[in-house]
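Exam revision sheet. Question 4 asks you to relate a sequence to its structure. Input first:
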Amino acid sequence: MTVYSTIFYLLSLLILGSTALAITRPNVVHAVIYLIFSFFGSAMLFYLFGAPYLAILEVIIYAGAIMVLFLFIVIMMKLKKAEERLFPLKQLLPAAVLGAFYIAIGAGLIMSEPGSRIILKTAAADPAVFGQYIFERHWLSIEIVSLLLLVALIGALILGRRLKRIQAAKAPEGEL
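Answer key, structure tokens:
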């Protein structure tokens, strides 16, 4: 087994583990953070496969923009918080283990010998050519996704305002 196949299997396990933790967390904010770990693992997998541009897009679009939107929606919905510490020990340990694995794998990718690579057929595309291809052939898909994100944002805003009105109606006279 080569170094790259070992890194691939470790990354796969980390992606599956962090996604499973994201699904099983009762706290929505913690679930979003574990999903960010999963997206960073996917970006490292893209980089391992020789697609650094896709790795950067994964980090910028998914781990950056989409997760910020998810956190914004969670904040707008103002979900009730559990009465516990900010980071319980049972949730801190998996996050620390996943972080250590990601650091170790990233260091392994950076410090690996260039001569130990398996030569793959290069399928490189200039970002301008890639963007032109996407916006010429798949423009409808991009517009649908942007419309869905806009609808989700408006829905979170409406839910947040509705909850605010309900809380204001339940509050005693002169208190908010």
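Marking note for examiners. Residues 125-176 form one domain.
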